[in-house]
Amino acid sequence: MRDLLEVTESGLYCERGDFYVDPWRRVPRAVITHAHADHARSGCDRYLCAAEGKLVLRSRIGGASPIDTLRRGEHVSINGVKVSLHPAGHLLGSAQVRIEHGGVTWVVTGDYKLHHDPTCATFEHVPCDVFVTESTFGLPVYRWQSPEEIAAEINAWWCANRDAGRTSVILAYALGKAQRLAAMVDPSIGPIVAHGAVMKLVEAYRASGVRLPPIDRVPPRARRVGNGRALVIAPPSVLGSSWLNLFGESSVAMASGWMTLRGVRRRRGFDKGFAVSDHADFPGLLTAIEATGARRVLATHGFSDALARYLRETKGLDAAVLPTRFAGEATPDAAVADSSDMDPP
Amino acid sequence: MKAFTDLYWRLDATTSTSEKVAALRTYFTSAPAADAVAALAVLSGGRQLRSVSTSQLREWAADVTGYPAWLVEECYAHVGDLAETLALVLPAPEACADATTDPGLAEIMRTTIHDLRGADEARTREVVMEVWRRLAPRERIVWHKLLTGGLRVGVSRTLVARALAEVAGIDQAEMAHRLMGSLPADADAFTALLVPEATAADSRRPYPFFLASGLDRASVEHVSEDLGDVTAWQAEWKWDGMRAQIVRRGNDTTVWSRGEELMNDAFPEIVAAGVTLPPGTVLDGELLAVRDCRLLPFATLSKRASRKRVTKKVLDEVPCVFVAYDLLEQDGTDLREMPLAERRQRLERLVTTPFTDLLAGSAPGDVGRLFLSPLVAGGSWADLAVHRAESRTRGVEGLMLKRLASGYAVGRTRGDWWKWKVEPLEIDAVLLYAQAGHGRRAGLHSDYTLGLWNDGTLVTVAKAYSGLTDAEIVELDRIVRATTLEKHGPVRICRPTVVLQLAFEGVSLSTRHKSGVAVRFPRIVRWRKDKEPADAGTLADLKRMIVDHE
Fold first, then answer.
1. Residues B246 and B309 reside in one and the same domain
2. Is the residue at B194 inside a domain?
3. Are residues B290 and B433 in the same domain?
4. Residue A334 sits at the chain B interface (C-beta within 8 Å)
5. Contact A337 B474 (CB under 8 A)
């Protein structure tokens, strides 16, 4: 019997329902797990996403293609295939896609994390037969601290900088991580300001009903913004640009799961690295996989080889790698250096 | 352990000299003397013996975590640093020590590292497991490095001396001198190290070595422009031996390496020669191995120096001499601030036979083992450049240029002493294997194995680690990943696509290398993006560069 979903030239395809999940090319019908660029391409004829993510998706893909939405608990039948969307905890409106037909259920996670995030719904464990899981951080060296511990570290760094009269600049992907950071930190420490690319999405988040602390846009040609007291949230692309000169003396930190590794932190020359990620860490991946009860697991992105082998040999699962167009391996430098917000770890 | 861990991470987090000194000062002011002694030994890069093998550690980490061994290896290949890999995969500690129960560095070193030497495997495993249960990940990294003898911190001895001088409130040069020779072995010695007034604690102490810097621009025009009037300079050959000092004080004669190791046992004939010097004399110079008026290769000398016992056979096969460059102390008076020109005059009266006479066979038979480093005469920079070009056939590395008016400084102070080394040899080679680097380059493939053509196939000739920019390393890493043919643990065999220009100091025949040749000090000069692998050099080209010194 053929699989319900298969990898084609254009991406992960459900032939029976004639739709794609996170297609790589323009297709007639796309079900989108979340609005990051490597999952949500513009130019498809019709989109389906979680209701909370509609505004964010629209701000990313532009255009006028219709976006259908599903609320939590709703499902839709696409050519007789039952489709529903379940929170993935990655960012606002991120969803796992549950696809059921002929008594077989698949779940495609997109990117996900299990930790609490005040800017989006928490990951839901959805039982299934086949679980297509991301594996960006699929090695046991990746094990996150609790969000409370990370928030305390960031607050302490911000306080120390403020007391020394240094501006705190934290680099993070403009969509998701930036808003989560704004919601995580203690706004009583000082003013929060953000780069224009971040602000655009802050507005989309607010319009979607997410509560965020007051955040000021960095005005163009502003001099000495925040007087050494502010927390500046900016995308990594500002690194090495004159934009950073706006802040006078500053401490520059990167917020990314890759910051777990000392070597990555050091060679990029950050003053500080915070290992805060919107992806699941290794124990998180295992927890999620186990909770589905799936006998078959397909791993994609990052350390998919290692994770699949571990699941086969240690957990006795039917596990394999699901090829992606973003072939190759997880490279921390690419992720940190990339000026786009593609696949933000 | 917490205080030392903080020091390690503070040093790791900054490239600023003043912040590093501040971190060291904080540590040495607050640490108990016993811990300070241990820290000083570690920071000075003293030889740290390995108490546990890294394969045992990996195996035990797999046991504790329940992860298969291959997964731990996979992590290591990704992280590029074993100490860090283990610290990250191990379970969270059960009970971290607080400030009152935290063991100091000295106690940790004694109970969990030194005491493990000679312990059986079961006992070692027990200690390692116990430490893993107690230490937080950031402490584990430091401890693993101490345990495996791989702790490197980015501080020079000069920086350590500067910090200690500030703590003691004495001159930095005085502290550098106090730190020469043997480091304090116990708390009392450490306390004595910090007393403001000079002590006569160790009359054997050598002086801190003055080290030359390489010239930034090596053409005659540039040297002339940068160094000015040639008559203000003294030129000597840069001999390829081991830098050393002979310290003759009272009835005691000692020979010290640049690494401040006492070498009396390794070079008894040099000690015997030193005894002929008047008391209160310190010579700076070079140890060289010479037999039948011919210089022996550096490797031969180095092998002899590493022997614990020197037999008569070795003394006959690898006879050594001392070639004096400088006179640092005479009649017990420190001459280091005197201009070089005056020190040189005094040296020439003390040590009279130029080393070149020995090589020419014209030295008297009873000349002994102390020689004078001969000057290289040249009325112009162009004359000196001609002599420099003879370097390879003379078996020297180039010229040393010293300002005649200069004193003898401490460490690598720039400006007065320059190495004008001979141009390196170069060849274009093909990237064959790449391995992930360590430290700052962890996770990036930055260790390269290069090959040359021989009968239509590529044979490996050298490994090189340095020479590319950080951006080039990242770019090359992507190519390595994209052209990988096979993976063997951390090593990737690549499809030949990349040509790198390799520089090296010399080539010699070797039975230890498959290619039959060994290159000395290979490094990458540039990435030849304009060349295809087919354009790279051949093994025959390389062999033609072998210079016969004889």
1. yes
2. no
3. no
4. yes
5. yes
B245 and B354 fall within a common domain? yes
Q: Which two tokens stand for residue B169?
A: 């409130």
Q: Cα–Cα distance between B489 and B506 in angstroms, integer?
A: 31
Residues on chain A touching B80 (C-beta within 8 angstroms): 263
B243 shares its domain with B382: yes
Q: What b/e sequence results for B216-230 when a residue is b if at least 16 CB atoms lie within 10 Å of its CB, and e otherwise? A: eebebeebbeebeeb
3-state secondary structure of A240: coil
Q: Which of A75-79, A333-337, B336-340 has the lowest mean pLDDT?
A: A333-337
pTM recorded for the entire structure: 0.73
For residue B438, the chain A residues in CB contact (below 8 A) are 263
- B300 backbone dihedrals φ, ψ, rounded to 5°: -65, -45
Q: For chain A, how big is the Rg over CA atoms in Å?
A: 20
Q: Which of A236, A255, A274 finishes a domain?
A: A274
Q: What is the pLDDT of residues B334-387, one digit of tens each?
A: 999 999 999 999 999 999 999 999 999 888 877 889 999 999 998 899 999 999
All residues of chain A having their beta carbon less than 8 Å from the beta carbon of residue B89 are 140-141
* Domain of B444, in residue numbers: 425-543
- Contact B440/A at CB under 8 A: yes
| B157-168: pLDDT as tens digits | 878 989 999 999
pLDDT in tens, B279-322: 999 999 999 999 988 898 888 898 888 877 788 999 999 999 99
pLDDT tens per residue across span A207-261:
999 999 999 988 655 555 566 899 999 999 898 888 888 888 889 999 999 999 9
B441: contact with A, CB 8 A cutoff: yes
Is the same domain home to A39 and A135?
Answer: yes
Q: For chain B, positions 477-506, list CB contacts with chain A under 8 A.
A: 477-478, 481-482
pLDDT at position B272 is 94
If you measure CA to CA, which chain A residue comes closest to B72?
A140
Claim to verify: residue A69 and residue A55 sit in the same structural domain: yes
Q: Does residue A162 lie within any of the structural domains? A: yes
Residues B275 and B242 in one domain: yes
Does pLDDT of B242 surpass 50? yes
Within a domain: B207: no
Structural domain includes residue A288: yes
B307: CATH: 3.30.470.30
Count of structural domains, chain B: 3
Chain B residue numbers touching A266 (CB-CB < 8 A): 12, 439-440
Chain A nearest CA to B11, separation (Å): 12
Assess whether B279 and B220 both reside in one domain. Answer: yes
Looking at residue A339, its pLDDT comes to 35
Binary contact (A267, B444; C-beta < 8 A): yes
Q: Does B84 touch chain A (CB under 8 A)?
A: yes
C-alpha B245/C-alpha B127 separation (Å) is 42
Is some CB atom of chain B closer than 8 A to the CB atom of A266?
yes
Confidence of residue B236 (pLDDT cuts 50, 70, 90): very high
Q: What pLDDT is stored for residue B233 in this prediction?
A: 96
**From start to end of B365-498, where are the E strands?**
370-372, 398-403, 417-421, 425-436, 445-454, 457-464, 484-488, 491-494
ipTM score for this prediction: 0.91
What confidence score (pLDDT) does residue B367 get?
81
Domain closes at, from A274, A292, A324? A274
Contact: A261, B65; criterion CB under 8 Å? no
Backbone angles phi, psi at A110, to 5 degrees: 60, -150
Tokens of A335: 């992720």
The whole domain housing A174 covers 147-274
Q: Is residue B205 part of a domain?
A: no
Smallest Cβ–Cβ distance between A263 and the set B13, B71, B80 belongs to B80
Number of domains in chain A: 2
Asked whether the CA dihedral B458, B461, B467, B470 is positive or negative, the reply is positive
**Are B299 and B430 part of one and the same domain?**
no
Instruction: Tell me if B79 and A337 make a contact (CB, 8 A cut-off).
Output: no
Same domain, A125 and A182: no
Q: With an 8 Å Cβ cutoff, is A259 touching chain B? A: no
Whether residue A315 is contained in a domain is answered as yes
Tally of CB atoms within 10 A around B183 = 17
Q: Are residues B27 and B46 in the same domain?
A: yes
Pairing of strands A231-234, A167-171: parallel
Considering the domain boundaries, does residue A37 fall inside one?
yes
Chain A touched by B89 (CB under 8 Å): yes
